[in-house]
Design a protein that fits this description.
Helix content is 28%, strand content 14%. The chain has one domain: Aldolase class I (TIM Barrel), CATH 3.20.20. Helix 2 packs parallel to helix 3. By secondary structure, it is α/β, with parallel strands linked by helices. The protein has a nine-stranded mixed β-sheet with strand order 6-5-4-3-2-1-7-8-9, covered by helices on one side. The relative contact order is 0.15. Residues 14-148 form the Radical SAM core domain. InterPro entries: 4Fe4S-binding_SPASM_dom, Aldolase_TIM, Radical_SAM_PqqE_MftC-like, rSAM, rSAM_sf. Keywords: Iron, Iron-sulfur, Metal-binding, S-adenosyl-L-methionine. One of its GO terms (molecular function) is metal ion binding.
Length: 302
């Protein structure tokens, strides 16, 4: 598929591997021992400009925990100035006052993960005491400031109060509550290396991810498939390069072209054609998804 047929519309910008939580299921293997990587502020600004130049529409700042990155405000402001739509995926435990101001000034959308209506259960998942209280309080603050907010309930443990978590977010006023299962990447893999078959199939389709060392991946989960590095190659050249073509062909060979039509809402600010997964907190199989929400296959929690 040529770049003309596969326009780059969205990018995850993983600005840091540092996180104040230490979740067992973290696909990025982030932790309090993580670093901000090799990308300087100027490197990130150049990437943002390159994204705007190729016609991208949206960026999502992720980590690690992006609010721990000291220059997040500067990068958000820069992205806003290029016309990109911005979402920040945060655990919402560490939002400074000046960040709230930037969120409102730059029309930032927020997304967060939520594991239970029970503070004890939520904190067991994050391994951070008080995380439930802080996340919930900042969800309420975001809503009070009219900041658009998505919630994602990830099924991590058997017997987890996922339905109650989804209802709790809805009761707070969160209008979009998605669900996802633990995916066997990063710490959640517990050792085995991922393969193309472990991906959902829509990686590299109109989207890419860029890590704190400058590596470009076909998605946040496909970080074992490096397409290039923005520190030595312009993003447009990486997107249109031979490695990108090889990876795209490999993904299509395993999953088929139809897999690219569905997008898991936990990881992206847009979703189609199925719409947000219902809060049964299972998984949506893109290979079995059709053109309407009722045809999406939602599996049992794992």
């Amino acid at each position: 598929m040529s770049t003309a047929q596969n326009r780059l519309k969205f990018a995850w910008l993983e600005v840091t591997g540092l996180c104040n939580e230490f979740c067992d299921h973290c696909y990025a293997d982030s932790s309090p021992k993580g670093t901000h990587g090799d990308m300087t502020v100027q490197d990130w600004k150049l990437v943002i400009e390159q994204l705007a130049d190729v016609g991208a529409l949206d960026v999502q700042f992720i980590g690690g925990e992006p609010t721990l990155y000291p220059h997040l405000r500067e990068l958000i402001t820069h992205a806003h100035g290029t016309g990109l739509s911005i979402e920040v995926f945060s655990n919402m435990t560490h939002i400074r006052d000046e960040l709230w101001e930037t969120f409102t000034d730059c029309e930032v959308k927020l997304a967060t993960s939520y594991y239970s209506d029970s503070a004890q259960e939520h904190d067991r998942v994050t391994r951070l005491r008080g995380s439930h209280r802080r996340t919930r309080a900042n969800v309420e603050k975001a809503l009070s400031l009219d900041i658009p907010l998505r919630g994602g309930v990830v099924a991590v443990r058997e017997g987890q109060r996922v339905q109650e978590a989804a209802r709790d977010l809805a009761a707070l006023g969160v209008g979009q509550v998605g669900g996802d299962r633990t995916r066997a990447f990063g710490r959640a893999s517990k050792g085995p290396s991922p393969t193309l078959g472990d991906l959902c199939g829509h990686c590299a389709h109109e989207k890419c991810a860029i890590g704190p060392a400058g590596d470009v991946w076909p998605c946040v989960l496909g970080r074992f498939l490096t397409l290039g590095n923005v520190l030595d190659t312009p993003l447009a050249d990486i997107w249109g390069g031979t490695r990108m073509a090889e990876v795209s062909a490999g993904i299509s060979a395993v999953h088929g072209e139809g897999a690219q039509s569905c997008t898991p809402p936990q990881f992206l600010p847009m979703c189609g054609p199925c719409g947000p997964c219902v809060p049964s907190v299972g998984h949506c199989d893109p290979r079995e998804a059709g053109g309407a929400a009722t045809t999406a296959t939602i599996g049992a929690p794992v």
